[in-house]
From TrEMBL:
Organism: Companilactobacillus nuruki
NCBIfam families, per database record: portal_HK97 (TIGR01537)
Basic and acidic residues compositional bias, start-end: 395-414
Protein name: Phage portal protein
Organism domain of life: Bacteria
Region (Disordered): 389-422
Pfam families (UniProt xref): Phage_portal (PF04860)
Membrane-crossing segments per the record: none
Length: 422
């Protein structure tokens, strides 16, 4: 079944709140609730801090390995190829996730239409502009649909919720659209821009002076002083003599660099709070310290990435997998282990502990380090320290253990048996 054939045209959304946008001679209802002149996009392009945060989140999420698994085993099928390699003809999997996450952090919502083949199997994932989508509820069965209007693609249709990927920030009561972090930060960004514009104006302003004459200064002398001062002011250099009876005072500027720095620190904290990222990711001069980079990354993974990743995983599972596949144990998973591996010494200690306690095999460790797997016959065997035997090896075959070592009243170490003949 094709994408367009799945669009529903038989009902309209509740537009009671759009009546003020239409009349007898005009109809701007399609503009309702949408940003004009690319205002949010302009913030992303003109604010380096916002750009930095969204870039970090989008790039990090797009860089994480994403797999379709079934009972912890990799699955390679048409759906897994969509999310791992080629979601559509124009994008890579990295570009697709990056685009969705950028839209989610810019507009509060990221959308992608699922195009299916004749057998209802997903064959492409196509991102769409969040400003062209509006969630609506079917009045008959209360199901969720998405009203898609795009002048670029000449589309005005309704898409069932199962045929559109929707990732978002938190939503308000009885709403299905996420709240844009840029809307939350509007007041803080407006104030920050005002402070910067004022400071820039103060820095560009030329120096001003106050000339005071004494009562004993003649008119001819006043004119000479004015001419001399004009020449100095125009050249912005030279020697200015302050004669008796004349006072020259400079009007101080209101720009204070420390005030601008304090404002930047406050804005950075508000941005970090809105996007739920550690303040250190904004290269802020303050914001707490961590004893190691591992602690910083742990906070980032646990507090920031985990909720985002879980939303993507559940959205992909709900929209791309069938009920039978879900029941059989299929699921999607982002691998975030690489973000928590730590430095060389910490990783070596961790791998040693996991290896000697029979948890990781040699190939497990090689996979985590993105190294080729070993073809050695013991590379996929679990070992335990003792010192290091195959986990399925008969304990009586281990060095220094007698054959009756497993009985309760036997001696486990050779040479300690009092009944042994010398």
């Amino acid at each position: 079944m094709g994408l367009m054939s799945r669009f529903k045209q038989i009902f309209k959304p509740n537009i009671s709140d759009k009546k003020q946008w239409s009349g007898k001679s005009f109809d701007f209802s399609d503009w309702f609730g949408k940003s004009f002149n690319g205002s949010k996009q302009n913030i992303l392009e003109n604010n380096e801090t916002i750009f930095s945060v969204i870039t970090r989140l989008s790039n990090t999420l797009a860089s994480l390995p994403l797999k379709e698994l079934k009972n912890r085993q990799d699955i390679n099928d048409n759906v897994s190829n969509l999310i791992r390699h080629k979601p559509n003809e124009n994008m890579t999997a990295y570009d697709f996730i990056n685009r969705l996450e950028t839209d989610r952090n810019t507009y509060g919502n990221g959308y992608a239409v699922i195009e299916r083949d004749f057998y209802n199997v997903p064959r492409s994932l196509i991102p769409i502009n969040p400003q062209d989508v509006e969630p609506v509820i079917n009045r008959d069965d209360k199901s969720l649909w998405y009203h898609v209007t795009s002048a670029l693609f000449n589309i005005d249709a309704y898409v069932f919720n199962q045929d559109i990927i929707h990732v978002k920030h938190i939503t308000g009561a009885s709403k299905y659209t996420g709240i844009s972090p840029l809307d939350v930060l509007k007041g803080a960004l407006d104030f920050d821009n005002a402070v910067k514009e004022f400071s820039l104006g103060e820095m560009k302003r030329t120096d001003s002076f106050i000339l005071k004459y004494g009562s004993n200064v003649s008119e001819e002398k006043k004119q000479q002083i004015i001419d001399m001062f004009k020449k100095y002011y125009e050249s912005n250099s030279g020697v200015l003599f302050q004669e008796p009876g004349v006072e020259i005072d400079k009007i101080e500027r209101n720009f204070v660099s420390a005030d601008l720095k304090n404002e930047d620190d406050i804005t950075d904290k508000r941005i970090a709070n809105a996007f739920n990222v550690p303040l250190q990711f904004l290269n802020a001069s303050s914001g707490g310290t961590f004893s190691s980079n591992e602690q910083l990354m742990t906070q980032f993974v646990q507090m920031t990435l985990t909720p985002i990743v879980r939303q993507y995983e559940q959205e992909f599972e709900k929209k791309l997998l069938t009920s039978a596949e879900l029941t059989a144990g299929s699921y999607f998973k982002f691998n975030m282990n690489s973000l928590l591996r730590g430095d060389m010494q910490a990783r070596a200690n961790f791998y040693q502990i996991m290896r000697r306690n029979g948890i990781y095999t040699t190939n497990d460790i090689l996979d985590l380090e993105d190294l080729p797997e070993s073809s050695d016959e013991y590379a996929d065997k679990l070992f335990v320290s003792g010192d290091l035997y195959p986990i399925d090896m008969d304990p009586t075959q281990r060095k220094g253990v007698t054959k009756d070592a497993t009985t309760k009243d036997s001696k486990e170490v050779l040479g300690n048996d009092p009944n042994k003949q010398q």
